Amino acid sequence: MTISVQGVISRAKGEPVEVTTILVPEPGPGEALVTVQACGVCHTDLHYREGGIGNDYPYLLGHEAAGVVDAVGPGVTDVAPGDFVILNWRAVCGHCRACRRGEPWYCFSTHNATQKMTLEDGTALSPALGIGAFIEKTLVAAGQCTKVDPAIPAATAGLLGCGVMAGIGAAINTGGVTRGKSVAVIGCGGVGDGAIAGAYLAGAHTIIAVDVDDRKLAWAKDFGATHVINSRNTDPVAGIQELTGGNGADVVIEALGRPETYKQAFYARDLAGTVVLVGVPTPEMTLELPLLDVFGRGGALKSSWYGDCLPSRDFPMLVDLHLQGRLPLDKFVSETIGLGDIEEAFAKMGRGEVLRSVVTL
Ligand SMILES: NC(=O)c1ccc[n+]([C@@H]2O[C@H](COP(=O)([O-])OP(=O)(O)OC[C@H]3O[C@@H](n4cnc5c(N)ncnc54)[C@H](O)[C@@H]3O)[C@@H](O)[C@H]2O)c1
Ligand SMILES: [Zn+2]
Ligand SMILES: [Zn+2]
Question: Which of 39, 41, 43, 193 to mutate to test the pocket of ligand 1 (most atoms within 8 A of CB)?
Fold first, then answer.
């Protein structure tokens, strides 16, 4: 039986998002219906609305979510009704070439629900990142549900489903940050502060936060930044070099996805250091760099998809670290809002007033 719920869609490029009625099928084989309790507003949702990700409108937005499994379809054994779960966009297949070589965090054939959620007129929706969670109940592949300790509030837990995990993983999984390393993070939104929290957790010695907004830099300190640079007033490359004995940082994480900040990251790292691109560029962006510098500076230029995380390994572990008081995930939640407040949340994100607005249902 199909159910009828309220959800938030982006109908056309650049148009304001709207709350509308959405029809959700009952879970089929390998699927789960989840009652969404909380879903964060990520910059990627805005990228969808702006046409930066694709042209498969209408999109059902929202993808940083936690909730309770309501029902499961035939053959689902990993989760059951009543389980508290964080939704992920990496339900690994186990069979692709990445999975077969033992690197499932790169899985090239991840699962989403097979059936489509639709508008009342039958128009199929494209769920953001294969999730779609600004909605009362959503349909996902069962593998997109990762069971975690229900002692964590849903608004806090949901953020691990995308941006905060992407940031933490960019530092620890992709960047290989370990005890004693120097790290710089350019762009201190939810993703960048996740990277700072990850670098802190891993024992980095120097953690430099770079942003153009002093409020963001103050928050970055709460997650473990040892130094801050406002790149409106200070050249970030020179600033990072000065704070690292003139050398540059071992790992520089770009959490914006823009050519100019990528170049800053490239030149602000030490010889043989690592650049991690976790910010998502838009299709028209290009990068020009002297090839001799790419060669001569050595090291690694990496991209981080979802923090190279494995949800089944990383979500329960990070929730436990939070519950033990070692990872302040709750500080990412700036405010809780309703389904009708997403446009305002985008505006607040643009003005730098929030780290994460989280829709609670
Ligand atoms: N790789 C992934 O898997 C993944 C996952 C989630 C999000 N993302 C991407 O990460 C990026 C950041 O997302 P977010 O939600 O943290 O965004 P956000 O808008 O919350 O944060 C961006 C931050 O950058 C700062 N900023 C703007 N211009 C700057 C500049 N020139 N120099 C330094 N700082 C500047 C802003 O003040 C803000 O603090 C987005 O591109 C998003 O799509 C990537
Ligand atoms: Zn796979
Ligand atoms: Zn996201």
Answer: 43
Task: Using CB atoms within 10 Å of the CB of residue 82, give its burial: 0 to 12 exposed, 13 to 18 middle, 19+ buried.
Answer: exposed
Render pLDDT for 298-344 as a digit per residue (tens, 0 to 9). 999 999 999 999 999 999 999 999 999 999 999 999 999 999 999 99
List C-alpha distances in Å: 160 to 76, 185, 323.
23, 19, 14
**Ligand nearest the Cα atom of residue 111:** 2
DSSP 8-state symbol, 26: P
CB 63 within 8 A of CB 158: no
Burial of 326 (0-12, 13-18, 19+ CB in 10 A): exposed
Number of Cβ atoms within 10 Å of the Cβ of 316: 16
Residue type, 192: G
pLDDT confidence tier of residue 1, bands split at 50, 70 and 90: confident
How many CB atoms lie under 10 A from the CB of residue 23? 17
Q: 276 with 186: CB under 8 angstroms?
A: no
How many residues in total does the chain contain? 361
- Ligand 1 atom 40 nearest Cα: 279
Measured between alpha carbons, how far is 206 from 248 in angstroms, rounded to an integer? 11
Which residues, listed in sequence order, are joined to residue 254 by a DSSP beta bridge? 186, 277
| Residues 105 and 90: beta-carbon distance below 8 Å | yes
Query: 219: which strand partners?
Result: none
Contact 75, 44 (CB under 8 A): no
Give the separation between CA 256 and CA 43, rounded to whole angstroms. Answer: 10
Model pLDDT for residues 271-293, shown as the tens digit of each residue: 999 999 999 998 899 999 999 99
Residue nearest to atom 2 of ligand 1 (CA): 306
Name the residue with tokens 């609305």.
49
8-state DSSP, 171: I
Q: Is 76 left (phi over 0), alpha (psi -120 to 50) or beta?
A: beta
Q: Hunting for tokens 């059936």 — which residue is that?
A: 115
Say how many CA atoms lie within 13 Å of 233 toward its Cβ: 5
pLDDT surpassing 90 at residue 93: yes
172, two tokens: 């620890």
Neighbours of ion ligand 2 (CB under 5 A): 93, 96, 99, 107, 109
